[in-house]
Amino acid sequence: MAQQTTQANPTVIVQPPTQSQTHLSLPVDPELSDLLIIGAGPCGLFAAYYSGFREMKTRILDALPEAGGQLAVLYPEKYIFDVPGYPEILARDLVAQLVAQASRYSPQMLLGERATDLVRNSDGTYTVFTEKKGYSTKAVLVTAGVGSFSPNRLNIQNQEKFEGNGIYYFVKHKSFFKDKNLLIVGGGDSAVDWALNLKDVTKSIILIHRRDQFRAHEQSVKEIYSSPQITVRTFTELKAVSGDDSNLKQAVIFDNRTNKEEAIPVDCILINIGFKANLGPIANWGLQMENRAIKVNGRMETNLPGIFAAGDIASQSDSVKLNLIATGFAQAALAVNVAKKYVDPKAQLFPGHSSEKSA
Ligand SMILES: Cc1cc2nc3c(=O)[nH]c(=O)nc-3n(C[C@H](O)[C@H](O)[C@H](O)COP(=O)(O)OP(=O)(O)OC[C@H]3O[C@@H](n4cnc5c(N)ncnc54)[C@H](O)[C@@H]3O)c2cc1C
């Protein structure tokens, strides 16, 4: 196996990644953690709590600028009904609770940092590189969900100028759309649900879809057609946007059967035409994969020593794969307790009851 050293990272690299090696010359943080968690979705956040509870020095990093994974990005304003202990909870509120729970033991939370490279050092520790730095750790838990995801984009005139300033792909706060003339593009559950969710906040909503059949819940489709605040335009696509330097003012839409164009005044556009999830570099770290997930055994161990996986990204042998928050939580608890024993072989596997610890 190739050996490599760099001045900034004097550790001997025994397992060079197959990805671009550009980040390997970045400085390495001097602090060695016990457990580094990749992905601050619900599973990673719960793992961070558990890791602190097991008295491990913990780092958790996420490519996104905020914690919460799919809940924060894809459905922050939706209610979840199947999280134990909560008859119903808004996804955004569950994230806030998980962050509060994870914070009890003050893990180092690194947001806006995407893990790109994994290096196994000669002493058995690992260094995970992001685009900013290297972080050394005794064990790694990958809770990267479906990978880092990015929204599908249209290719329309002036799109880039207004992205983030009139054109949006996510709804962070409903109040952001208060009294706005909103154009929603899409024909799936997201587009339809947002039209319904935002109809009482906005001034007006036009929902356009390139076909006449929606791929959304039947009852929700009935509701959009019967809501006076929502104008539904089928066989309609977005062609161009325009405005002044600071504001989006107009969208040009067209009927894709006749190509007849129409300019409509808009304040914002919400594009909900799906997401691309990309596991990216993690898929090239030498981890055994199965259907775009990392293969783990019943102890959440991957094929690499000291590297564990849990949540949506983990495919557990001899088990059914249910990509749910509740199953991810259980896997996180398993992974962290096994990781504890890996880091400190004298430790008990069973963590003890949290209820018996002092607050
Ligand atoms: C619309 C929708 C509704 C849902 N409703 C429910 C429901 O009602 N009940 C339920 O139980 N489940 C629901 N789910 C599923 C649930 O959201 C997932 O099972 C859960 O989010 C998985 O959590 P996770 O922590 O494993 O991964 P994720 O939530 O996907 O989080 C993974 C995190 O890892 C980060 N990441 C990925 N790659 C990297 C990298 N290289 N470096 C750094 N960070 C990285 C990502 O940015 C992300 O923040 C729903 C999903 C969707 C899309």
Portion in helices: 10-25%
Largest sheet: 7 strands, mixed
Overall number of structural domains: 2
Percent in strands: 25-35%
Helix-strand makeup class: alpha/beta
CATH topology of the largest domain, anyone?
A: FAD/NAD(P)-binding domain
- On the 0 to 100 scale, the average pLDDT is 90
Task: State the low-pLDDT regions, or none.
Answer: 1-20
Helix-strand string: EHEHEEHEEEEEHEEHEHEEEEEEEEEEH
CATH hierarchy, class of the largest domain:
Alpha Beta
How many E-type strands?
22
CATH superfamily of the largest domain: FAD/NAD(P)-binding domain
- Give the radius of gyration: 23 Å
Small molecules (ligands, ions, cofactors) in the structure: flavin-adenine dinucleotide
- The separation of the N and C termini measures 48 Å
Q: Count of helical segments?
A: 7
Q: CATH architecture of the largest domain, please?
A: 3-Layer(bba) Sandwich
Outline:
elongated
Word description of this protein:
This protein has 2 domains: 209 residues, FAD/NAD(P)-binding domain (3-Layer(bba) Sandwich), CATH 3.50.50; 121 residues, 3-Layer(bba) Sandwich (FAD/NAD(P)-binding domain). It contains 7 helices and 22 strands. The strands form 6 sheets. Strands 1, 2, 5, 6, 7, 8 and 21 form a 7-stranded mixed β-sheet that branches. Strands 10-17-11-12-13 form a 5-stranded parallel β-sheet. The chain has a 3-stranded antiparallel β-sheet with strand order 14-15-16, with no helix packed on it. Helix 1 packs parallel to helix 3, helix 1 runs parallel beside helix 7 and helix 5 crosses helix 6. Bound molecules: flavin-adenine dinucleotide.
